[in-house]
Amino acid sequence: MLGPIGVPWRPRILLVTVATTLVALVVLAGGIAAGSAGLSIPDVLAALAGAGDQATSFIVGELRLPRAAAGAAVGACLGLAGALTQTFSRNPLATPDILGVTSGAAAGAVAAIVLGGGGYSVGASLLGFGIPVVATVGGLAAAALVYGLAWRGGVDSYRIILIGIGLTASLGGLTSYLLVRAQLTQAGAASQWLVGSLSGISWTSVWPMLVVLGLAIPVLVSQSSGLALSPLGDEFSTSLGLALQRHRLIVIATAVLLTSAAVAAAGPIEFVAFVAPQLAQRLAGTARPPLVASAVSGAALVLAADVLARILLPGEIPVGIITAVIGAPYLIWLLIQRKDVR
Asked: Where are the alpha helices (DSSP H) in 223-268?
């Protein structure tokens, strides 16, 4: 450790990070190749290198690469956010969803769609703001409300989780009410967004996620020693000089921004923030989810789910359905393993 910076790179963590990165890259190339045009992975690599023919380069660069990049960015944001919340709470079930971020973003987006005219594009708006902006504001507002209600001279990890569950249920009720009151076209557009999809996504939605990821890296490096101390308990961490409440505020704010950016781009893609950190932790054999491996695992998970949604099932279905099908059984298994839930 060097001051507040402590990054214990063990060989197994490095190996798992490199391996999951390679898997993510292979799945990304396979996702770009998959489709009606019948491209091969060598065709994709040639087009990305600028050596493909004009038609292939257009398909790869303009049609499929933005979707693949968005899937990777969404997965990385959610995987990293999940690793942060599970680390500070010392609970594998704690995800940004529990903090109300996803439900707040969903309520904001549905309100924009229903009250703002029923549009689903980025340009559709409520009071002049686009749906991604409204969704981001909704997620941030929900997280701020949870944090404020949980504050009692400090924030306890279990208290913030319980309050987050309650607020998530309330916001879910609000979203359902808006859907019931909406017109048919508005309800259809809102339902499409609520499932979580990469369909029709463009570079306009990718860049904000990349910016948030870039800003999160130096922040998390500065908090790395605090994240290493978090699993040891509040009293022990404080006795070692960690400014616990300040550390938690920074970690929560970073997780909220990462989640809000992902949800604003693709909608609430379920279970990625839950499964990816746990997968990375078990592969690495660590006491807490490794951050970089969690982000890469999230990217690989979303990319793989998107490929499955496009090639293995009749007709394209939203990627959020695939991640829910994958994540729900894992959640049940984790609940059965009582020793892992503490």
From this structure: 224-229, 234-239, 244-266
pLDDT for 8 equals: 54
> Which helix (H) or strand (E) is 34 found in, with range?
none
CATH of the domain at 318: 1.10.3470.10
Indicate whether 159 belongs to any domain: yes
- Indicate the angle between helix axes 319-336 and 291-311, nearest 10 degrees: 130
Would you state the pLDDT for residue 81? 93
CA distance 30 to 276: 20
Measured in whole angstroms, the distance separating CA 68 from the mean position of its chain's CA atoms is 15
**208 belongs to a structural domain:** yes
The whole-angstrom separation of Cα 34 and Cα 46 is 15
Cα torsion at 82, 16, 30, 75 (round to 10°)?
Answer: 10
Looking at residue 87, its amino acid is: T
pLDDT at 134 over 70: yes
Token pair belonging to 299: 């990217």
Q: Which domain holds residue 142?
A: 11-340
Residues with Cβ within 8 Å of residue 5, at least 6 apart in sequence: 221, 222, 224, 225
Q: What is the pLDDT of residue 231?
A: 66
Say if CB 304 and CB 298 are below 8 A apart.
no
**Residue 140: closest CA among 166, 116, 173, 108:** 108
Is residue 6 situated within a structural domain? no
User: 70 lies in a domain?
Assistant: yes
Packing angle, helices 157-181 and 101-115, rounded to 10: 20
Which tokens hold the place of 252?
């929560």
Structural domain total, the chain: 1
Write the CA distances from 75 to 13, 53, 55, 96, integer angstroms: 19, 31, 29, 13
Between CA 110 and CA 150, with CA 265 as vertex, the angle to 5 degrees is 65
Q: Are 331 and 271 in contact (CB under 8 A)?
A: yes
State pTM to two decimals.
0.85
Say what the pLDDT of residue 73 is.
Answer: 95
